[in-house]
Each structure stands twice: as C-alpha cells, then as structure tokens.
Give the backbone structure.
Amino acid sequence: MALRLGLFGRKDGDDGARVALAALKERARIVLCLSDEATVAVNEIVCADPACPGLETVVLIMEPGRRTRALKIAKAAGAVTDDDLHTAAAGARL
C-alpha cells in the first residue's frame, strides 16, 4: 500500500492540511472498499481561476491493471464527507 499526499499551491508547514489529507486518504480506502494493492493519492489544489471554488481535493486511485481514476471534489480536504466520496466515485464509475 503506497501513500501519497500533496499540498499543491499551499505553504509548507500547513500541518492541519497534511493531517486532513492523511485522514481523507484512509477514509477513501475504507469508504470505497479499495484493496490493499490500490495506491491512493490525495491532493488539495488551490485554483487561481475565478470560476474555480478556491480549493479542490483530488483523490487518485491507482490499481494494478486498471486505469487511474480521479475523483474531484470542490472542497478543502478537511470538509470532504463520506457522501462526497461516494458521489465522486459514482461519477468516476469506480
């Protein structure tokens, strides 16, 4: 099981965001019933485009023999709920 966390566009030392990303990664694995072989990467992205919501969380799911799937949620990582994960997964056809 591989771990990847990212804070693109955020200042280094934002420990609260790092904790939220790590917690979301573990929740995504459980909520989406992912196998131990799956690699989950969670990134929180700051978008400068006025049409963007400000912060967007992207959950990448990588499994051997399958295409990488990206779940995009228009919220900060700390605000993402289990329902948000389910909704994004349904849209990504997990």
Notes: The chain is about 30% helix and 30% strand. Residues 15-31 form the longest helix (17 residues).
